[in-house]
Design a protein that fits this description.
Peroxidase, domain 1; Peroxidase, domain 2; two-stranded antiparallel ribbon; disordered N terminus
């Protein structure tokens, strides 16, 4: 009888571990016993940066997305290169900002718990905490236990990061390759509710959409006219809000913008070219639906191809592998 009870107990424990984890061995409160204050330190440090710079949430959210889509959520995006061949040197990542924020948070965590908390976890937590700052509550759950990758290759970025010029088929394929559904694609596109886009990412929609000097017919004409006043041909530096009038507020207004054919990128407009995606856009116009769905999709994305257990390492500094 005792053997049977022991077997039942082991079975229950195994089931609870499987149910309570996602993406390998990610769990809630992973650092509870080795660095109990880890998540609190990350939260406080992140909030300090957001309080002084309201652009931080958009920057960290985008950085987290770009990290997870190349080699999974392993912090490989954060690595520097001496030969200009790391992920952060690739064209889609050259406009990323916020590396200094992550480095500062890491330094504060290291003071309390050296060699314990991964940069990959810090990035995932900081992205969540920065967006959550305005709401005074966590907007999605972040299981932890990620380890840091040791490899960062520039050429892998454009193979994996969905381009702003992507059509729906291309977007769907990019997300499917990461185990993310078309529904996740539409939901995570809602991250465009905060932040800015460079003119170079949509300039062709204004001046040369099909290579004949034409304008994208799916773009609202009056909005296109306004964008042309801000983005002359071949502009390399100017940025404009992705969600006009609400670029610093995390809300669902992005979907209203898309429905009005004012999505900034071809990839935004692409959401209306597929019936299922279009129906999802219309559902997410309701803010509570968006927040709930975004929380689920972010948790799912944060578990993409993570390194756990003894894989990878825990970097001492986020910008360099341990020597």
């Amino acid at each position: 009888m005792m053997k049977i009870n022991v077997l039942i107990l082991v079975f229950v424990v195994l089931i609870s571990l499987l149910v309570g984890s996602e993406g390998g061995q990610l769990t809630n409160n992973f650092y509870k016993h080795r660095c109990e204050e880890a998540e609190t330190i990350v939260k406080k440090a992140t909030e300090k940066h957001v309080a002084t710079n309201p652009a931080v949430p958009a920057r960290l959210l985008r950085m987290h997305f770009h990290d997870c889509f190349v080699r999974g959520c392993d912090g490989s995006l954060l690595l520097n290169s001496t030969k200009k061949n790391a992920e952060k040197d690739a064209a889609p990542n050259q406009s990323l900002l916020g590396f200094d924020v992550i480095d500062d948070i890491k330094a504060q965590v290291e003071k309390k718990c050296p060699g314990v908390v991964s940069c990959a976890d810090i990035l995932a937590l900081a992205a969540r905490d920065s967006v959550s700052y305005a709401f005074k509550k966590s907007m999605w759950e972040v299981p932890t236990g990620r380890r840091d990758g040791k490899v960062s290759i520039m050429s892998e970025v454009q193979q994996n990061i969905p381009a702003p010029s992507s059509n729906f088929t291309q977007l769907k394929q990019s997300f499917a390759a990461k185990g993310l559904s078309a529904h996740d694609l539409v939901v995570l596109s809602g991250g465009h509710t905060i932040g800015v886009g460079h003119c170079t990412a949509f300039n062709d929609r204004l001046y040369n959409f099909t290579g004949k000097g034409d304008q994208d017919p799916s773009l609202d004409k009056n909005y296109a006219k306004l964008l042309k006043t801000k983005c002359p041909p071949n502009d390399q530096n100017t940025t404009v809000p992705m969600d006009p009038g609400s670029a610093l507020t995390f809300d669902n207004s992005y979907y209203g913008v898309v429905l009005k054919h004012k999505g900034l990128f071809t990839s935004d407009a692409a959401l209306l070219t597929n019936k299922v995606a279009r129906d999802t856009v219309q559902e997410l116009v309701y803010q509570n639906d968006f927040f709930a769905e975004f929380a689920l999709s972010m948790k799912k994305m944060g578990a993409v191809e993570v390194l756990t257990g003894t894989a990878g390492e825990i970097r001492n500094k986020c910008w360099a592998v341990n020597s």
